[in-house]
Design goal:
Order of helices and strands: HHHHHHHHHHHHHHHHHEEHH
Structural class: mainly alpha
Number of strands: 2
Strand content: 5-15%
Distance between the termini: 59 Å
Shape: globular
Number of helices: 19
Length: 390
């Protein structure tokens, strides 16, 4: 009877979180990510006269078209809501991949961990492409686990079409996922080749545009402070993404169960986490780069950690919605709202600052940095309306 009540309480809390998320999708506008408007512009340019432009170095064709379409015809609420919905669905499919049987309690705890994480919750309320890439990756893992290889190949290829870096998750997953009856190496190589080729087709236009050069594969990296600067950014941002106190709890758990976790099970999830961390070390930019690692980490925890540890993590996650504990005072070259955040120095400090909810609402004005208020399109963007000027 108590377990039934507990699961109902979980379900109620998860439902409230999802409803709150969709509410924010409707009131949040086009968000605080500088890449959103360029993605919309890609769709508008191709719709207008077929002009080829890329939103960033590589460009990400599927979310550029998807987010652009939703924003152009419906507005920010549609782009935000679909992005958040894809995030919710991806959590379901990735859970079903690694847990053959649906255990309601574990599924509830996984959702609570994921939805309470500020990075996984608030970053997916905006029209960005991380959710789109992970959604297709998650359904790819699900189809692959069910041996529906044709659909798995398409889903993995689509995830690469959403974000090129998902290739570092797709190919290792195919090689390392373990079935009861093993698949021979030749078949796995053929599946990986198909994923690579089909996923690569999405990037043919940008490859042609650069006259068969590969310079578009290299994104801007913060190398001005050398290897030490990269390591400092990587360490600090990883800590922030996981959480100040949460990191200590997780570190304690892994040290206590090191051999069992890494050598007897969870090898695939651990390798995927390491690959994500290596990618983030290479370019320690937005915290959302670590979204896959956080989800893989939570999958390990709900399977092996005690309820006490999981509840502690959920509690501290929710605490960070209201307040946060700042451990570094970072000075930027230009601290104005619209300036690029280029850190020049940092000093240790411990103080309480507003949490993720206030930060979310405070950053709604950042869209002003990229929208021209003197045009009809810019005015519509600032109001969160569709970008279609009639």
């Amino acid at each position: 009877m108590f377990k039934l009540f507990e699961n109902r309480l979980y379900f109620l809390l998860i439902s409230l979180l999802i409803l709150f998320g969709f509410y924010l999708c409707f009131v949040g506008g086009y968000g605080s990510d500088e890449d959103t408007l360029p993605m919309i512009q890609v769709f508008e340019a191709r719709l207008r006269d077929g002009t080829f432009i890329s939103s960033r170095f590589t460009g990400y064709p599927i979310p550029e078209i998807g987010i652009g379409f939703l924003s152009y015809y419906f507005g920010s609420w549609a782009a935000n809501s679909v992005t958040f919905l894809l995030h919710i669905l991806s959590l379901i499919f990735i859970y079903l991949t690694f847990f053959k049987k649906i255990e309601i309690e574990k599924l509830n705890l996984f959702f609570l961990l994921s939805l309470s994480s500020p990075v996984l919750f608030f970053d997916n309320l905006e029209p960005i492409d991380y959710s789109w890439g992970f959604f297709f990756f998650s359904i790819g893992t699900y189809f692959f686990s069910k041996k529906i290889f044709e659909l798995a190949i398409l889903a993995f290829a689509f995830s690469i079409g959403c974000r090129l870096n998902f290739i570092i998750f797709c190919l290792p997953f195919v090689f390392l996922y373990s079935f009861d009856d093993k698949i021979n190496l030749k078949k796995k190589l053929m599946i990986c080749l198909n994923i690579f080729v089909i996923g690569g087709l999405f990037y043919l236009p940008v490859w042609f545009f650069h006259a068969f050069g590969l310079d578009w594969l290299t994104a801007a990296r913060p190398l001005d402070q050398g290897l030490f600067g990269l390591f400092a950014r990587f360490t600090y941002k990883t800590w922030i993404a996981i959480g100040l106190f949460q990191l200590f709890i997780i570190f304690y758990f892994f040290m206590k169960n090191f051999k069992e976790l890494l050598f007897k099970k969870n090898q695939l999830l651990t390798i995927l986490i390491i690959l994500n961390l290596l990618l983030f070390f290479y370019i320690p930019a937005e915290l959302s780069y670590l979204q896959p690692a956080l989800i893989f980490l939570y999958l390990i925890l709900i399977n092996d950690a005690s309820k006490k540890i999981i509840f502690s993590l959920i509690l501290f996650n929710f605490l960070s919605w209201g307040i946060n504990f700042q451990i570094l005072e970072i000075k930027h070259r230009d601290s104005s709202l619209c300036a690029g955040k280029q850190a020049i120095s940092a000093s240790f400090v411990l103080k309480i600052i507003p949490g993720s909810v206030k930060n979310y609402f405070d950053t709604r004005d950042m869209i002003k940095c990229w929208a021209n208020p003197n045009t009809e399109r810019g005015k519509r963007i600032l109001m969160g309306k569709s970008t279609r000027v009639k």
